[in-house]
Design brief:
With 410 residues, the protein is α+β, with helices and mostly antiparallel strands. It contains seven helices and 22 strands.
Length: 410
């Protein structure tokens, strides 16, 4: 107690002990609160109108004509202002824009990394990307293109009715590694939220609409590391290795009546009455398949008592293998970009969040996506009902006109 009092006196001077203790506790609480605050590397909701165009840099790479983007909440939405996002506007175009993080990531060591954003394919997309890429500080934004090196690529990609997947690609030692598991993306016209969580225990989780879709270990679901052992490339099968499971029965013999011709003259054929041997040549009966023909004789097979199984080379230590207990670790991430191709435009990107706190990301999802999605769905269903009634009225009108035409014909 005396040591605590001395320390407090040194820090705060001659104050009453009770006051000094409260000061210490308050300072500790504030420090703990600061340490618990999430780090938000980037949060983009396009809520400040046209100011987005000063943050998002359009690529000018090569001679490509990139598609234009503009703000839109789409045809159906919950809140016209809050649901505004960045929309692809031109069909059959590449799109290439990027923006800088508010706080670049130097390292995710001992931290979680969360990438979260919403996508709405209002155009009934049949071929096109809806993913984001995270880029290092070396990216030249005005020269960004499909081959620009990136750290992570994440999000939905659609190409035809069968290829509808969520990409999760990590760049590891210069190689882009694809997720070995299949995650099917959403392909309707509503807004959907995609979340990637990479944890410092080398596990990951992919969430769609704030619900877990896939999870596991990085080492198991991507080919980050070489196998610990490989088949010895210098080994060869011994000459006396017997890998035949069966052999001919040495006691089996061919039946005496086995050998028969494959075809025989048709015994029911008769020489035509008008056949002239001098003119037509010697008559020969047509041949038919011989029902007694049994093919080539082979002795029956018996188990080989010397069978050793399929030979496999011995396993040896892989000289290329190395351990890496920090597969999760990302360094130097400074930009996020939309680098996609779309046949039919109309996709809306919104609520992009890059943080180190998955609980914070889930809370943001509840406050933004879940509220907007519920209202948006109601508007979409109301719109669909109006269109359904219109189609029904048109059908009835068409049927009535056809009935009148039939009556007039009669």
């Amino acid at each position: 107690a005396s040591e605590l009092s001395s320390g407090i006196n040194a820090e705060y001077g001659e104050l009453p002990v009770g006051v000094m203790v409260r000061c210490v506790l308050l300072s500790s609480a504030l420090l703990a609160l600061a340490l618990c605050e999430p780090t938000v590397y980037l949060r983009e909701d396009f809520a400040d109108g046209d100011a987005w165009s000063s943050r998002w840099i359009q690529s000018e790479h090569g001679d490509k004509t990139f598609g234009k983007l503009d703000l839109s909440a789409g045809e159906f939405f919950h809140d016209a202002e809050k649901d505004v996002g960045l929309k692809t506007m031109e069909n059959a175009r590449f799109y290439a824009v990027s923006t800088e993080f508010a706080q670049p990531i130097e390292s995710t060591e001992d931290k979680t990394l969360v990438v979260q954003f919403s996508v709405k394919h209002e155009q009934k997309i049949d071929c096109g990307g809806g993913y984001l890429k995270l880029f290092p500080s070396t990216l030249e934004q005005k020269d960004m293109h499909g081959e620009s090196p990136y750290n992570i690529m994440f999000g939905p990609d659609i190409c035809g009715p069968s290829a509808r997947r969520v990409h999760v690609i990590f760049n590891y030692r210069g190689q882009n590694l694809l997720l070995k598991k299949e995650i099917r993306c959403k392909d309707d016209e509503l807004t959907h939220l995609y979340t990637l969580i990479v944890r410092s225990d080398n596990t990951y989780e992919v969430r769609i609409d704030n619900k877990k879709e896939q999870s596991g270990k990085l080492e198991e679901d991507w080919d980050f590391l070489e196998p610990k052992e490989i088949a010895d490339p210098d080994a060869s099968q011994p000459e006396d290795w017997d890998d035949n499971p069966f052999l001919d029965d040495p006691e089996d013999t061919k039946p005496e009546d086995w050998d028969q011709p494959e075809t025989i003259p048709d015994p029911e054929a008769k020489k035509p009455d008008d056949w002239d041997d001098d003119m037509d040549g010697e008559w020969e009966a047509p041949v038919i398949n011989n029902p007694a023909f049994k093919g080539e004789w082979r002795p029956k097979q018996i188990d080989n008592p010397k069978y050793q199984g399929e030979w496999e080379p011995p396993m040896i230590a892989n000289p290329k293998y190395f351990e890496d207990d920090k597969l999760y670790l990302q360094k130097d991430i400074k930009f996020v970009g939309i680098d996609i191709w779309q046949v039919k435009a109309g996709t809306i990107f919104d609520n992009i969040l890059i943080t180190d706190d998955e609980d914070f990301a889930r809370q943001v999802a509840k406050e933004t996506f879940e509220v907007s999605a519920a209202g948006e769905k109601e508007k979409k269903e109301a719109k669909d009902e109006v269109e359904r009634k219109k189609r029904e009225e048109e059908r009835k009108k068409r049927e009535a006109e056809e009935a009148v035409a039939e009556a007039e014909d009669e």
